[in-house]
Design a protein that fits this description.
Blueprint lengths: L1 E7 L2 E6 L23 H14 L7 E2 L9 E3 L14 E4 L5 E6 L3 E7 L4 E7 L1 H6 L1 H11 L8 E4 L12 H10 L4 E3 L5 E3 L1 H11 L4 E4 L13 H4 L5 E7 L1
Parallel strand pairs: 3-6, 4-5, 9-12
Antiparallel strand pairs: 1-2, 2-13, 5-8, 6-13, 7-8, 7-9, 10-11
Protein name: Purine nucleoside phosphorylase
Keywords: Copper, Hydrolase, Metal-binding, Oxidoreductase, Transferase, Zinc
Subunit structure: Homodimer.
Length: about 240
Amino acid sequence: MITQRDTVNGAHFAFTDRWGGVSAVPYEELNLGGAVGDDPGTVRANRELAAKSLGLDPAHVVWMNQVHGADVAEVDGPWGDRPVPEVDAIVTVRRGLALAVLTADCVPVLLADPVAGIAAAAHAGRPGLVAGVVPAAVRAMMELGADPARIIARTGPAVCGRCYEVPEVMRADVSAVEPAAHSETSWGTPAVDVSAGVHAQLDRLGVRDREQSPVCTLESRDHFSYRRDRTTGRLAGYVWLD
């Protein structure tokens, strides 16, 4: 259920795999995405299971309506009856409030400055990398008092640069914005390495405490992959502060 978990100075980071939930094929088992065609009640049950496994109150996890952009929302609690905004990053100064990001090949980015008490979660696919969603999230944290030198960054399971095949023109467009994302598949065709691009952006912003998951979602049958399966579930990354 929780494939990776890390705690640093009261900042908690966690990423799920696909097992331990109640969804049926093709979303088996721990689908946490509410907009992929799975039964809503099943998704709610999966979110409760995942949250409780982390010691979190499922009602106090904040989710996003992700659209592959670069908009950031500051949050101080769950949305309740309000519409969930179309953003790809959320930031909070409320300790104990968990922020969640959904992925199935894109890069889940979890950020925290434990000293300032600021956390953020971002969804960085290829479009978000180019749009600058991760720098936008870091800047939002800085505006609230975070220091990049104190920010801890963890990126979760995502399609790797050896597997993310794209047309040459697309690779060129991405590389023009972020050269570190330039890659080649293991079979010798143009590719994009979004995780490498995200970490290069974080490095330029002064974020030094960074760790990247070794898991490639397309290669791992323990993780959901949109590129591999098309109709599939979604993984989640969670970040919160004591």
